[in-house]
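GNAT family N-acetyltransferase
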Amino acid sequence: METRTASADDAEGMGQVLREIIEHTGRQRPHDASFVMGRYIADSTSIRCTVAVDGSGNIVGFQSLKKAVAGNPYDTPEGWGIIGTHISPKVHRQGVGKLLFSATREAARQAGLEKIDAYIGADNPSGLKYYNAMGFRTYRTPEGIVQKVCDL
Ligand SMILES: CC(C)(COP(=O)(O)OP(=O)(O)OC[C@H]1O[C@@H](n2cnc3c(N)ncnc32)[C@H](O)[C@@H]1OP(=O)(O)O)[C@@H](O)C(=O)NCCC(=O)NCCS
């Protein structure tokens, strides 16, 4: 397993990861390659989007790090990082999330961020436990959501 910065060529593989998560959770969300390009790879606020690639060259997960700008959809304070993590259920609990966060944390430090926000569904126990394990703590709880922050 290795990580690298996502490029346009990864959009299809990243969309496949989203489809596998949808199949697993039953929760619909956009997942085609053009959505992935706009939302993760080519977003103007992106600091780094990192993909995890298995030994056969398949993308098994990705993690995006963006800079919070005024009016962002999560109401994250301006200047913080915003993280999002998407890993195929085929490889859950094998350390992929941990590997991705070591790359993201490094990118955040290089970008001079002091804090990273994670916006998690309150009904997503694995997401909550994952971010706890990565050193995030809850700082606010809008309805149905838990927002956690990591101090760098
Ligand atoms: C949450 C998610 C990112 C975790 O990724 P992962 O690759 O399985 O995580 P890792 O294997 O690196 O786990 C790191 C640590 O997180 C914690 N953790 C992760 N998943 C967990 C779970 N289901 N239950 C309990 N602890 C968990 C553990 O402490 C784990 O360390 P350990 O396995 O040594 O005990 C992954 O399940 C996922 O992408 N889910 C779908 C999308 C999602 O929920 N995204 C995040 C919230 S928006």
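thats it. Strands lie at 2-5, 46-53, 59-67, 81-87, 115-121, 137-140, 145-151. The longest strand covers residues 59-67. bye
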